[in-house]
Specification:
This protein has helices at residues 2-7, 10-19, 22-45, 50-70, 75-87, 93-115, 117-120, 129-163, 170-204, 211-232. The chain is mainly α.
Length: 234
């Protein structure tokens, strides 16, 4: 039957594995959040009526608040990852320090972001919430910067490896394909990090970016995240 074919289709099973992950649901909400930010800006710039803009402003706020709640407690994961990276004896020194810096940056961001949830949700307003959120953005910016440096350094290493490959040998062809896969993954992550950097950069005043640019960049990095989690749950 058609119903059975749909219910037991591999794509449905893959979808269920995807939405079963917190990361998968977060990436979908993030995509909607940042697209709403972009589209609300677009409607405002095209002189749309306030009633047309309001739903997207509400989506931006509510999905952002939902994601903030979903992140509560995730800081522990990054503190652990930072400790693991610091204890590693096999990692490249540059990548090791970047990994520690990235994980500590993310951990600090999530810790400070968690504290501001009650104010953002209107449960317990706090006079220090704005200051804490600003510090959270600083920590996120630092974490992203470390990851960007690691990405650029990794591309340099891959270039060195590629130049040393002897394509006349069978193993060289296999190694070349491996390098290309790693380069593609690194480039994709680098694009995602550069897009994400627009968010704290704008919030902290490091760059004069409007909601259109930030919303569009956030949408791109979110879609990359959706695709990455989809691949992992295949």
């Amino acid at each position: 039957m058609v119903a059975d074919a749909l219910v037991y289709h591999p794509t449905v099973a893959h979808y269920l594995r995807y939405v079963a992950t917190t990361m998968g649901r977060d990436k979908i909400l993030r995509t909607l959040q940042y697209f709403s930010r972009f589209y609300a800006w677009y409607l405002f710039r095209t002189n749309a009526h306030t009633s047309a803009i309001a739903p997207f402003e509400a989506m931006k706020k509510q999905f952002g608040l939902s994601r903030k709640l979903m992140r509560v407690g995730k800081n522990v994961e990054h503190f652990k990852a930072a400790a693991t990276a610091a204890d590693s004896k096999t990692m490249d020194p540059v990548l090791k320090y970047c990994a520690v810096g990235r994980q500590l940056g993310y951990a600090a961001y999530l810790s400070l972001d968690m504290v501001t949830y009650f104010d953002a949700a209107g449960i317990r307003p706090s006079a220090s919430a704005k200051k804490l959120q600003r510090e959270a953005y600083r920590a996120w910016f630092a974490g992203l910067l470390f990851n960007t440096i690691a990405g650029i350094y990794t591309l340099y290493q891959l270039r060195q490896r590629s130049q040393a490959i002897n394509m006349k040998e069978g193993e060289g062809v296999v190694e070349s394909k491996k390098v290309e896969r790693e380069r593609a993954a690194t480039n994709l992550q680098l694009i995602s990090d550069l897009c994400d950097l627009t968010v704290p950069s704008s919030a902290l005043g490091y760059a004069n970016l409007d909601d259109g640019i930030v919303g569009l960049a956030g949408t791109v990095s979110s879609l990359i995240g959706v695709w990455s989690v989809w691949k992992k749950t295949a």
